[in-house]
Design brief:
Pfam families: MipA (PF06629). With 270 residues, this protein is an alpha+beta fold. Helix content is 17%, strand content 50%. A hairpin with a 7-residue loop joins strand 1 (32-43) and strand 2.
């Protein structure tokens, strides 16, 4: 409830914070946009042994402080380091070192038919999430980010949080490499929805009952690159690994605590 209240207060304060900053800022810059496609490979869900390969469309649009994007497009347009994530977002505070913002996105939840190991479990309903995020520049290429994400509709999505340290360790006119490490945590509602097994679903799922509490969710790390090959065109890629922790790792739904992902793609930006 405290986290939800914090997010609602941030929503209420957004117009005032933006109005104060607009008085100090020059006229808005031209719109920025990006479109692209990627191929990714990752586990079917966190903790699954089986993997899935997908072709993903990605895009992003920024007009002043307002942004719309898919998850991949967010980082490639240049504001991914700010922990905004996918959806619609705006900056509430922006200084030379600190950025604070608010984002809204649709969370598709989970269908019990998404994977063979989750069949028989209750579905997690689609919902609307608010994400309050902050980023602090420790150095020109070193950033510390944190975020809180809350289910606004009470559809059993709960609250999750993450903290990440990002480092751009190589940059030239033709190549950029970045890396990051971080951890995530979740409240009991989120854990029960994605890692729990209610007693009423024991027979249908073939899994023992499990009611997790709040705690750490995972530790993750990754690297990524972008390489331009024309004025507007570039290729990009990323790879990473994660390890489930705490109540998530103890779930009977987890087949592997360690997971990995990889993606490569092509995009155009103005």
């Amino acid at each position: 409830m405290k986290a939800a209240s914090l997010l609602l207060l941030a929503c209420a304060a957004a117009p005032l914070a933006q109005a104060q900053q607009q008085e100090q800022e020059p006229e808005s810059q031209p719109a920025r946009y990006l479109i692209g496609v990627s191929v990714s490979s990752r586990p079917e869900y966190d903790g699954a042994a089986s993997r899935q390969t997908r072709l993903n469309a990605l895009w992003a649009l920024q007009v002043g402080r307002w942004r719309l994007s898919t998850s991949g497009g967010s980082a490639l347009l240049g504001f991914g380091r700010e922990s905004a994530g996918p959806g619609a977002s705006t900056q509430l505070i922006e200084t030379a070192r600190l950025r604070l913002g608010l984002a809204l996105r649709v969370d598709n939840g989970r269908s019990s038919n998404d994977a063979s190991t989750t069949r028989g479990l209750p579905d997690v309903k689609r919902t609307l999430r608010a994400r309050l995020y902050a980023n602090y520049s420790l150095a020109p290429d070193l950033n510390l980010g944190a975020a809180l994400s809350q289910d606004l509709l009470g559809h059993q999505g709960g609250l999750n949080a993450d903290v990440n340290l990002g480092w751009r360790f190589y940059r030239s006119p033709t190549l950029e490499w970045t890396s990051g490490i971080g951890f995530s945590a979740a409240d009991a509602q989120n854990m029960r929805s994605y890692f729990g097994v209610p007693e009423r679903a024991m027979a249908a799922s073939g899994r023992p009952a499990y009611v997790p509490g709040s705690g750490l969710r995972d530790l993750h790390a990754g690297v990524g690159f972008t390489r331009p090959f024309a004025r507007h065109w570039f290729v990009f890629g990323s790879a990473g690994a994660s390890r489930l922790l705490g109540p998530a790792a103890a779930s009977p739904l987890v087949e592997k605590r360690d997971g990995s992902y990889a993606a490569i793609g092509l995009a155009w930006r103005n």
